[in-house]
């Protein structure tokens, strides 16, 4: 007699590597590289998973969505927030020089420059990418340093300092404007530091 009773449904495999603690790290490393190469919009979850050698479902398992993966990658796979936070900690009289020096050195560092390029590409091609740039980097730096919150009266001056440094870095490293690209690091810091210091600590005329 044929057994016609319902059979239990087999669960579909999720692709998760049981006990593989390196899977999450592999995804983050892959995401760091592809975000650096293509920016936020250009790096697909499928491509990130393929480079990491995992099923794309694992990205959602570990991170939920692309936005969370991007934020986690920028926070966990870079030293950018920590270096900037360390630079702003110290005597306020030399804050402009320290912040300028630290930020420009990040662009000269082969480890951090690809990440900064990824952030620039993301910010330039996507409003969402621009918001993530502000949230991820700005938020992490504020957590680790005494910088003003967004509702602080000093916030506009801080925003001007950040925008000034960002513009110079893009002109020097992305647009490769000759005058800036060829200027020695120390000379560029000396030129910029007084203006950045005034933004951060000066008083309006």
Give a structural overview.
- This protein has two domains: 22-76, Homeodomain-like (Arc Repressor Mutant, subunit A, Orthogonal Bundle), CATH 1.10.10.60; 80-201, Tetracycline Repressor, domain 2 (Orthogonal Bundle), CATH 1.10.357.
- Helices cover 68% and strands 0% of the residues.
- It is built from eleven helices and no strands.
- The protein has helices spanning 22-42, 45-52, 57-63, 66-76, 80-88, 95-108, 113-125, 127-143, 155-173, 178-181, 185-201.
- The longest helix is centred in the first third of the chain and has 21 residues, at 22-42.
Topology, element by element:
Blueprint: H1 22-42, H2 45-52, H3 57-63, H4 66-76, H5 80-88, H6 95-108, H7 113-125, H8 127-143, H9 155-173, H10 178-181, H11 185-201
Q: Helix/strand/pairing class, anyone?
A: mainly alpha
* Fraction in helix: 55-70%
Instruction: Give the low-confidence spans.
Output: 6-19
Strand content: under 5%
In CATH terms, what is the architecture of the largest domain? Orthogonal Bundle
Tell me the number of structural domains: 2
**What's the β-strand tally?**
0
Main beta-sheet strand count, sense and barrel state:
none
Overall mean confidence score, pLDDT: 80
Span from first to last CA?
Answer: 96 Å
CATH class of the largest domain: Mainly Alpha
The CATH superfamily of the largest domain is: Tetracycline Repressor, domain 2
């Amino acid at each position: 007699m044929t057994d016609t009773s319902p059979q239990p449904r087999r669960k579909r495999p999720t692709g998760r590597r049981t006990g593989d603690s390196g899977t999450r790290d592999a995804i983050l490393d892959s995401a760091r590289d592809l975000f650096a190469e293509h920016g936020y919009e250009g790096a697909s979850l499928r491509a990130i998973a393929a480079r990491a050698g995992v099923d794309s479902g694992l990205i959602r398992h570990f991170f939920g969505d692309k936005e969370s993966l991007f934020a986690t990658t920028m926070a966990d796979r870079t030293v950018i927030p920590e270096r900037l936070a360390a630079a702003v900690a110290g005597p306020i009289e030399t804050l402009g020089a320290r912040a300028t020096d630290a930020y420009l050195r990040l662009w000269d560092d082969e480890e951090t420059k690809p990440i900064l390029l990824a952030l620039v590409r993301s910010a330039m091609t996507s409003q969402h990418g621009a918001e993530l740039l502000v949230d991820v980097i700005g938020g992490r730096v504020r957590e680790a340093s005494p910088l003003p919150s967004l509702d602080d009266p000093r916030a506009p001056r801080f925003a001007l300092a950040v925008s000034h440094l960002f513009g110079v870095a893009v002109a020097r490293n992305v647009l490769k404007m000759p005058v800036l690209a060829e200027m020695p690091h120390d000379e560029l810091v000396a030129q910029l530091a007084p203006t950045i210091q005034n933004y951060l600590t000066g008083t309006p005329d």
